[in-house]
Design brief:
elongated, 8 strands, 7 helices, 4-stranded antiparallel β-sheet, PH-domain like
Length: 240
Amino acid sequence: MEPLIFKLNPEGYSAVRKKFIVQITLLMIVVWGAVSFSILKDDYKNGGGTAVWLMLGLALVYAYLVFKIAKKRKKLYGSYMLVIDDINITRKQEGFKDVRISISEVSIIEKNASNRLTIRGKSNAPFERIVIPSQVDDYGRVEEILAGIKPLTINAKPNYLEKYGLLIIIILVAPILGVYVIDNKVVVSICAVLAVTLLVYNIFYMLKYKNAVKSWKRALWIYPLIVISILVAAYFKLIA
C-alpha cells in the first residue's frame, strides 16, 4: 500500500500551549519567589533601592522565555509526521532523530488515559519508542491501523512523569536555588551535593542520548558551567 502520512492537527496546539504556559508559570513562581526572598532580604540590609528593578528583570526574562520556548514548541509540533507503510512505522520530527520500528518487531502498542499511543519495538530505550499524541489527525484511523498490527494495551494510569512532572522539575530546581538563596552552611552543603549530583546525572543521560535529541549537543556545554557556578557559590558561602 501507499505510505500513510499523519500529522498533528494545528487546532490541537492551543491545548498543548496552554498546558505548557501553566507549567512554566508555576515553575517561574517558585523561582521568582525564592530569588525575590533573597533579594529583598539583602536589599533590606543594604537600605533598599535595587529589589524592584531586579524583580522586574526576572519578570522580563520570564516573558522572553515563554515567547521563545512557545515559538520553538510550535515549530516542533508542526513538524511531527507519522508514516505507516507495509514494512515500517516511522516518526519524524524536527530536532529529533527519526524513529523507525519494523511492523514485524512491534512488541507492544499502549494507549494511556489521555489517548496517547506508544509503540515499542525490540528496544526499550526511551528514544527508540514512537509516541503518537492524541492531537494526531484522523486519530480513529491511526488507532484502527495500529490495532490491526497489535492489540492495544490499555493503561488507564498516568505514568509518574505525567502525574508528577512539574513536581519533579521543582525538586530538581530547588537544590540549585538553595545554594544561592540560603545562608545556612549545612543547608547550602546539602543543596550543593544534591544539585551537583542531579546535574552530573543529567549530563551523562544527555551524553547517552545526545544523538536522539539534536539540541542536546548544543546544550551540553551549559551544564558544566552551571556545576562550576554552584560549586563556586557554595565555596564562598561555606568559607564566609
